[in-house]
Design brief:
- This protein is of the alpha+beta class.
- The chain has a single domain, classed as Alpha-Beta Plaits (2-Layer Sandwich), CATH 3.30.70.
- The chain is 27% helix and 38% strand.
- The chain is globular and about 50 Å long.
- The protein starts with a helix and ends in a 9-residue tail after the last strand.
């Protein structure tokens, strides 16, 4: 699988923005079948940085009320990537 197909989008939240400056970690939404070594290689290739650690988790979709009843948003896999202290990613 290509690196652009593995890394779907960066997650920009209040917590992830704070972690970028404090801990040099970045959050990404990744493909469901992506493994930690795949994610590390894709981030290093796309952003030309040195990755130290990768943590992954699967976020469960939240229930939503619709006109016809209740439904659930889809689950997604999230990767939290810690970079080397000399590396930095400019998302904006």
């Amino acid at each position: 699988m290509d690196a652009t197909q593995l890394i779907l989008e960066p997650l920009v939240t209040e917590k992830s923005t704070a972690q970028q400056s404090d801990r040099n970690t970045y959050s990404f939404r990744v493909h469901d079948s992506a493994s930690k070594p795949d994610i590390k290689a894709a981030i290093e290739k796309l952003y030309n940085v040195k990755v130290v650690d990768v943590r992954t988790l699967v976020r469960k979709g939240k229930p939503r009320r619709t006109k016809s009843g209740w439904t659930k948003k889809s689950d997604y896999k999230r990767a939290i990537v810690k970079l080397h202290e000399d590396s930095k990613i400019e998302l904006f």
